Amino acid sequence: MHTNDRALGTVLPPSPDDVLNKLRDLVSTAYLQQDTAAMHIRAMALIGRLKSLYRAANTATRVNKEATAGARQEMDQSHLNLQNLLYEKRHLEREIEKCRQFASIYQDIPLYTLEEFKRVAPEEARGEDVLSDEHQLMLNRLSFELAERQRLDLKKKELLQQKEELLKESKTKSTTLDSVKVQIDLLMKTASDIQKKVDELVQPIPGPANEPPT
């Protein structure tokens, strides 16, 4: 049985006042003429009754003490549980405040404005149910931003690849042009040298003004 239930079910012994009054009566003048043996028997019976009441009172006192100790222990445990709950409550409140003040990296990421997002994002990412949910809206904006950056990064890589190919092609053409120019210069020099040798080997034909008179 639970301590408190046992305490509530305890019946306190009757008051010993009635027995004490009867013992007092035995020594009063009203009983002076009574038989001594009978008086002794009656006195022993009353004393036995008084001892019984005393034992019952001791038992009730012990039970009540146990009940009180149990109730105090339960109260202490309840108080401890309350303190634990209050501590946990304060801890959770501090954690909530930390979360509210936490500066996430996404706050420093330049995103499409909300109007731009509504205009260019896929329809399923900007439905009415999403726009009414601030948390889901931010998640969708971040996801869209990531997809856009990946798309633009891929486009950038493609353009860089095209640039590299054009640079290689331009370099090849420039090298070819330089080679052709060198060959032309070489041909022109060779032609000039040949012309000089021809001029040295071939004498000029005299004209009529140089003929002797007949």
UniProtKB/TrEMBL annotation:
<dbReference type="InterPro" id="IPR019163">
    <property type="entry name" value="THO_Thoc5"/>
</dbReference>
<comment type="similarity">
    <text>Belongs to the THOC5 family.</text>
</comment>
<dbReference type="Pfam" id="PF09766">
    <property type="entry name" value="FmiP_Thoc5"/>
</dbReference>
<dbReference type="GO" id="GO:0006406">
    <property type="term" value="P:mRNA export from nucleus"/>
</dbReference>
<dbReference type="GO" id="GO:0003729">
    <property type="term" value="F:mRNA binding"/>
</dbReference>
<keyword id="KW-0539">Nucleus</keyword>
<dbReference type="GO" id="GO:0000445">
    <property type="term" value="C:THO complex part of transcription export complex"/>
</dbReference>
<protein>
    <recommendedName>
        <fullName>Fms interacting protein</fullName>
    </recommendedName>
</protein>
